[in-house]
């Protein structure tokens, strides 16, 4: 029974992509409820410019108002030194930096070449100087929706450059749901080969999207390869602009439900989490991709219909 | 690279659950298109009473009108001897018999105890007497929505009873999407241990639903365990009455896409199949669960936006 660690990203990766602003109080309540579910980490918000991501313009207030629970790390996305300063002032437990391994996607998303992004993030890492742990999320590690293939060697090379700068963790992201299980197995093995000996404390997290239905199959492949840390988003919130109407992030409750059913220890109270997941459609005012919210857990049984009881009696009578 | 074999069940398991009758001509056209995709098998329809399943009341006509393609087996669901006679008259390549391993589900679905169902099916098998190959689909092998747990030993015991009667294949069905990957691995290993030596020619097929999001993860676990035959339904058609709004069968195109990407040979022309899958929402007049229909294949790239081209030029200029 492997101990697995989940980072809940719905209030950052999910809400960032919503059309309507989720009220600050609702965000705080949701995070406070999630804090009681057993997550290792919650990505609370993003300290980006309110102009860039208006949906998360209340990051400082949210961080200030949430009730922190011991054992849960509250991480925030940070694009640059200004964001890092705000995050540290807000006493974030971790700064999550992000850049893409695909040049075209980086230009598209961060409006600068990868080399420039790397310089910006390297500067943040040097300035923070170990005062707050840093994670780097690498986007498009399994493919770019515009470029196509992304070389595993490029992913490992960027991970290595950040590991050399002393970051605590690397998140390998399948930003647009292009990963398939065999690729995940290869990537995980490649990462372990490159880092297990040289950087034994480096935390590897996998971040999958369910855009092409392969999300949980990829989680399974990653767990089989020895990965113990995952990002996931309650309800599967967090759409992909390249696939309108398709699923976004893997749904936390679906991944956790599958892994617990298979005997893994996720530390999560799944019943408590399901209650929160069922509130999500009301919070975001639309249906969410999660199937589990509609179907219920494996153990949520259905009553036996009256006609089946009658049939059973009938046959028991005729047999006796 | 394992050769995998797919049985397309959309026109039976899918259409059976539709609210509106799909016109016979539409069914015939769809099956004729599917016949050109490389399927090992197509479950065309069901020779049940038109009262029991009105949506498939045209089974005889559909079987008569389809253009058969060499290499594709055309199978039909058959509940009893009357159905078997109609199916053989229609020159079905295989009869697919069905009963549930759960007593409550069998009463609910077939309105008789399992013992009675077994007698009915055993009689069919004896009467058919090898003139047409027979497959038996066992429902609720991974759990019953009313009873809960279903013992693996019960599944293997029913499979053994049918194997002893000389059937060609057994399909182990996760009728309501309750299977999880570890359970699939155990079931497959148990089946192999029970049958590989004694019945080396017995064909094992796995039938999964995506009701709780685990469909493709279960396919992956089954393939890893050595399973080579799968049922799947184009678009993911085929709802589950116990989970309104949730996904039904695994989507053929999603399973095939994942397995091909991972290096397996499914024999399927995925591009051709995707064109057909994209017509499905028009045929059934509603959205279908398949994510892949919305997102496109991994290789379906998106154009680089103009602003990204401009940015790239700008930075190349400033670098030079």
Task: Explain what you see.
The structure is a homodimer of 320-residue chains. Chain A is of the alpha/beta class. Chain A has a single domain, classed as Aldolase class I (TIM Barrel, Alpha-Beta Barrel). In chain A, 42% of the residues lie in helices and 13% in strands. Chain A contains 13 helices and 8 strands. In chain A, strands 1-2-3-4-5-6-7-8 form an 8-stranded parallel beta barrel, surrounded by 6 helices. In chain A, helix 3 links the parallel strand 2 (41-46) and strand 3 (73-78). Chain A is globular. At the A-B interface, helix 5, helix 8, helix 9, helix 10 and helix 12 of A face helix 5, helix 8, helix 9, helix 10 and helix 12 of B. Chains A, B: This is Hydroxymethylglutaryl-CoA lyase. Chains A, B: Belongs to the HMG-CoA lyase family. Chains A, B: InterPro entries: Aldolase_TIM (IPR013785), HMGL (IPR043594), PYR_CT (IPR000891).
Q: Which helices and strands occur, and which strands form pairs?
A:
Two copies of one chain form a homodimer.
Chain A: E1 5-8, H1 10-14, H2 24-34, E2 41-46, H3 59-65, E3 73-78, H4 81-89, E4 94-100, H5 103-110, H6 114-128, E5 134-139, H7 152-164, E6 169-173, H8 181-195, E7 203-207, H9 215-224, E8 229-232, H10 252-261, H11 270-284, H12 292-295, H13 306-319
Parallel strand pairs in A: 1-2, 1-8, 2-3, 3-4, 4-5, 5-6, 6-7, 7-8
């Amino acid at each position: 029974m492997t101990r697995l660690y989940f980072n809940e990203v719905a209030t950052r990766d999910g809400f960032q992509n919503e059309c309507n602003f989720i009220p600050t109080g609702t965000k705080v309540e949701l995070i406070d409820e999630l804090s009681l579910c057993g997550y290792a980490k919650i990505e609370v918000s993003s300290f980006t410019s309110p102009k860039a991501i208006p949906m998360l313009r209340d990051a400082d207030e949210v961080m200030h108002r949430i009730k922190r629970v011991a054992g849960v790390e509250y991480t925030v996305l940070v694009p640059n030194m200004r964001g890092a300063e705000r995050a540290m002032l807000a006493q974030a437990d971790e700064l999550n930096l992000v850049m893409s391994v695909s040049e075209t996607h980086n230009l598209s998303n961060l409006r600068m070449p990868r080399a420039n992004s790397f310089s910006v993030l390297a500067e943040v890492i040097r300035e923070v100087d170990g005062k707050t742990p840093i994670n780097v999320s690498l986007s498009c590690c399994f493919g770019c929706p515009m470029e196509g293939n992304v070389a595993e060697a490029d992913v490992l090379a960027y991970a290595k450059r950040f590991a050399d700068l002393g970051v605590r963790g690397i998140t390998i992201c399948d930003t647009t749901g292009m990963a398939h299980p065999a690729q995940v197995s290869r990537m995980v093995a490649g990462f372990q080969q490159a880092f297990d000996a040289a950087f034994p404390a480096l935390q590897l997290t996998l971040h999958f999207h369910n855009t092409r239905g392969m999300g949980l199959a990829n989680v399974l492949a990653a767990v089989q390869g020895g990965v113990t840390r995952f990002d996931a988003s309650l309800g599967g919130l967090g759409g992909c602009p390249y696939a309108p109407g398709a699923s976004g992030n893997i749904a936390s409750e679906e991944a956790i439900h599958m892994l617990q059913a298979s005997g893994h220890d996720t530390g999560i109270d799944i019943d408590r989490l399901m209650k929160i997941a069922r509130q999500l459609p009301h919070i975001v005012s639309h249906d969410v991709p999660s199937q589990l919210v509609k179907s219920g857990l494996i153990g949520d049984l259905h009553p036996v219909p009256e006609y089946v009881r009658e049939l059973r009696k009938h046959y028991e009578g005729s047999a006796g």
